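Residues pack. Consider this:
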Amino acid sequence: MKKDVEYLLLLGALSLLGLSRAEAQVSAPPALVSIIPQIVDGGVWATTIVLTNTSPNPTNVSLSFYQGSGSGNTQRWDLAFVEVAYTQTGSVSLPAGSSLFLHTPGTAANATVGWGQVAEPYGSGTPVVVAYAVFIQEIPGQSDQAGSAQATVASARFLVPFDNTNGR
């Protein structure tokens, strides 16, 4: 909140001086970014993204997704959801104290693996939106396999343990 007020005061001062934000090279208040380290869709996999607003106020979050493109690189991924027509530039509104479940269709012939970002207004510096992914492998005649990946505040490094025993 303090950073938002400081930002608005700075914009007001700039306008009194006759300067635009672009001329003064002032940036918007930062967003708090959390990373969902694992998302998979297609083949025998589907993912559910769960977003929960833990605050007593409504908020908006922006979602961005990236997929592997070979040689350790990633590229933007226009991940589809059953519930909504989502675009990379859009944001998702979350009422106070609510949860939103976004399911990938899982209908592509081959699996695509990637990760996601959840960006919310900076506020107090502590995320108010809890996010995680639940990915499910469904093979006819076999028990379903499921895993989850909780979003964590972005950092330089993080570990994603995964047990692929017996190729599952």
Q: What stands out?
A: DSSP finds two helices and ten strands in the chain.
